[in-house]
Amino acid sequence: MFSINKIKVYAFVGPSGTGKSYRAQMVAGEKNIDFIIDDGLLVKDNEIIAGNSAKKAPTKIETVKHALFLSDEEKEEIHKAIRKYKPQSILILGTSDGMVEKIASNLGLPKIIETTYIQDVATEQEMETARRIRVTEGKHVIPVPTFELKKDFSGYLLDPLQIFKSKGKGQKPYISEKSIIRPTFSYMGKFTISDSVFRQISEHLATKSPAIYRILKTRVDNYEEGPTIYMEVMVVYGYNVIEELKKFKQRAKKEIENLTAMNVVSMEVVAKSVYVPEEK
Question: What is the DSSP letter of 161?
Answer without folding.
Answer: E
